[in-house]
Amino acid sequence: MKPLYSKQYPFTYIVFGFFLHLIAFLIANMTGLQFVQAFVGMIGWWYIIKGFRKFSSVLRIPFHGFYRFLFVLYIILCAVMICRGYTIDYPYQWISIQGCINYHLFSPYYILPYFMPFVAFIPVRYYKLGTSVRISYVVGIITIILFAVFYKEILASSLRQARGFSVEGDYSFGAFIPQFYINVAVIVLFRKYISNKVFLINCIGLSLSILVNLIAARRGGSAIQLMLFVFNLYFLYKSVSSKYKILIVVISAIIIIGCVYLFSDSDVFNFIKERGLEDTRSGVDKALLSQMNDWELIFGKGLNGRYYYPLSALEDDYLNGWRYASETGFYSLVLHGGYLLAFVYIAVLLLPALKGVFLSKNLLCKALGFYIILSLIELYPFGWPSFNFKFLMIWMGVSLCYNRQIRSLNDRQIKEYFFS
């Protein structure tokens, strides 16, 4: 197997750095050893910073016209939101020096996501996706191993919950597995450019992630990854020659019918059937909005903005009922930056995504466009902007889908340019 990064291509250092952050996330969720997580994460930072230093002389905003205005506005709004967040007169959500370090250097949901747009500053000619493809293969293998190791515990946890037994820490056991794999899941849409081996491993990884989400009753995650699976079938259909298209349609129909039958007939999925369309979010989001005045609804409360809504008795409510985010990604954006930040964020991602889907001659831009749109749909069940491998691909996709020259390339040129 080729190395995961190359001195010849500085962008691969950044990609490898994010991969190390992904491994640090896995270590933290499996072992709870924060010092190991911090050590691996710091190595990741070294690679990320080294990669960006290589581009120091060429970093620039690659957009023009009204979209350039929106992009710059989003960065300004993020900067203002961060600065306002530190002017509050109550304790921050990190309540120790260790917590401060963890939130600022390793938490994927706190301050770091708002620096992700700087990925788009790197000129598209430097993007190389071969490293991302190889990383997806490694992550897919790890996902398969994790599923084999933890499947019995995941199933047992789900069955206990379906029977009404609530145990602290028991809910959605193993949900970190799909959270781990989803970071590289976009690679499954690149069938046109990747080997059969890599495609197969990613298909298995995505399928197992969906299965874990369904067993653990993660409804939002299940819906998003099922949509990604459908996109996968569509791009597979678009990638094969005409003589195989009918076969793909038949196999896809068999898979879908088989999955529907298995879901309806198996006791494995009782927990998610029990939850059904249970509303567990609206009360939280109503509390969030009701505790914001008109000014805050427009501009938010800042990075450390909070609202009061006590957690359940089974959860560790160390913040005494105060919450600094909502599980619904859209309302977390509203809390921190108001409706202005939330809608500018959506516009900044949506406009190039639509260009990629409808104004592109290659499947790479179409796939990235679909993936970006899926991340916006995900803002309802969860979908927080994140500092991780997934959003590295999303912001890279923003730059690629916006670029008219890249959209005009055919699939052969795309493969030679980005995947060689």
Count, helices: 17
Q: In this structure, how is the largest beta sheet organized?
A: 2 strands, antiparallel
Please list the strands of the largest sheet in the order they lie side by side. 1-2
Overall outline: globular
Could you list the spans in which at least 5 consecutive residues all have pLDDT below 50? 167-171
Q: Which terms summarize this structure?
A:
single chain; 420 residues; mainly alpha; two-stranded antiparallel sheet; 17 helices; 2 strands; globular
Walk me through the topology.
Elements lengths: L10 H21 L2 H21 L10 H21 L11 H9 L24 H33 L13 H6 L14 H20 L3 H21 L2 H24 L4 H6 L6 H9 L3 H6 L7 E2 L13 E2 L5 H30 L4 H15 L11 H14 L1 H5 L2 H8 L2
Antiparallel strand pairs: 1-2
What does this structure look like?
The protein has 17 helices and two strands. The chain has 420 residues and is an all-alpha fold. Among the domains are: 1-57; 124-245. The chain has a two-stranded antiparallel ribbon with strand order 1-2. α1 runs antiparallel to α2 and α13 (329-358) packs across α15. The protein is globular and about 65 Å long. Mean pLDDT is 86; it is low at 167-171.
